[in-house]
Amino acid sequence: MDFKSLVENAQDLMFRYSFQPKQGFEYVNSAAKAITGYTPEEFYADPCIEYRLVHSKVRFLLEDLVEAPATKNNSLVLPWVHKNGSLVWVEQKVTPIYDEEDNLIAVEGVVRDITRWKQAEEELQLQRSYFETLFDESPLVMAILNEEGKIIKVNKNFQNTFKYKESEAKDNFLRELIVPKDEVEKSQQLFNKILKNKMVNEETVRKRKDGSEIEVSIIGTPIEFNDRKSRICIIYKDITERKKDERQIKYLSFHDELTGLYNRVYFERELELANSQQHIPLSLIVADVNNLKLVNDVFGHGKGDELLKIVAKILKESCRENDIVVRWGGDEFIILLPNTTKNQVELVVKRIKENIPKYEEVEGPFTEISIALGYVTKESPIRNIDKIMAKAEDRMYRNKLRGSKSTKSSIISSLETTLLEKNYETKEHADRLEKISMKMGKYLGLSNNQLDNLDLLARLHDIGKVAISDEILMKPAKLTEEEWERIKMHPEIGCRIANSLAELTPIANIILSHHERWDGTGYPQRLKGENIPLLARIIAICDAYDVMTNERPYKTAMSHQTAITELKECAESQFDPELVKVFIELFDNQSKLKAL
Q1: Alpha-carbon span 304 to 283, nearest angstrom
Q2: Using CA atoms, how far apart are residues 165 and 156, in angstroms rounded to an integer?
């Protein structure tokens, strides 16, 4: 079936509405008739038909959406008015279409009929509210029956629970009022047991007057009044919430709490079932989240958890309904694919890779989600499943190792880009700092290895700021003491980042020290004099000079000579006095700096 046929036969209403050159519907599929009562031709003939469809009370939402469709896939839940006057609840998503000059020329949209879902949601909310009220007032319900099973009396809680007034319940068979059809036979057996002077204690389901059902525990016992006639007392307790909790406990016993995926216990149970002739060929995918430790170390485990949940969504979305997606533990996932050939599992792996970009809006500096994958197919029932799993895991680790270098380089590049975005620093500042510091490093006779580290340091000495919120970094007003303490953490955060990446490990301790002062009053270690790494002392002088001589949003630029004077005054307190002399010898006038 071609794409056009798929769209035309879709159950959702799909449309394109143009604003230029002519306002009106360009396309509406045939689902319009089923959802709205209007044919596509009626949409084409009336550009304003959607305003008649949308209920008047919420029409302003649609108008706002059309006037300012700021983002893709805006989604609204709206009441529409069917051609026959009935109310139809829909979920409407629209995507703005712009021309090359960024003018809005059209919107494309999908409209789904969610009336049943809306009604079910409203009903569920009403029932939940009702249950909570009942629980607060009393969970116990009582009814007195005669030997035939007819109701003699019910208490107030019975009326509240089953929604029968006493006048409606009296003289009726209990089973006809509150016992579901599929429970009638069992209910009669319990009743007969009580008639034989036996107490019953059971858990079952009962129905209310409106037909809705509740889970209850039942205690039934024979009683005898003064008239010597036998009576039966039935005591109910609403256990709906308890049963819900039991189901939740059962759910949690087989599911990972963080991601909602199946857990290792469930996987091992299912693996036994799947490892049989009827499920051959059986495929396995092992997936490992790259750089989770880095995210945890730098941004905290909350961000690491977010990353794991996103990866879980990617894997779940990429798999078929009967595939079993499992969080194996830590950063590792396993997917069990019964009746899946090698070619089919390769398609699943391909979908995983294709779906990753959809979820790359992760908070923090990482614009790429990286997952190492390994997969294998068991085509014979006699092959050992443990060896199959080991093979898939081995392939995953090989792929992880193969992609490690490019992933690390990508992260470094991403960190640098994020640093520029989050700070007042510009690329021009980074470039100037690199040139000034390298000139100074060469003049001092640093080795090639030291120069390489100095080059990295010039670009990444403030890398720890990627973990500081924009509100603090870009705050125009004076920082609070708490905010300033947070800012002062960036050397330590930067050191942790560098230690997590092999390429940056050599400069980790220098990043930690770049805010130390010659007199020992800096931070975070209060190092003094030559205990401060040489490269950190160089960067401190070069960075201070460039900041002073270039305009910022919060200050005007100093002249070259004023900045030199400031460096001299801060020698022996903030800066290494000998290195300040070297800087002045190198750049005694501004023309030498401009020549870089």
Answers
A1: 29
A2: 9
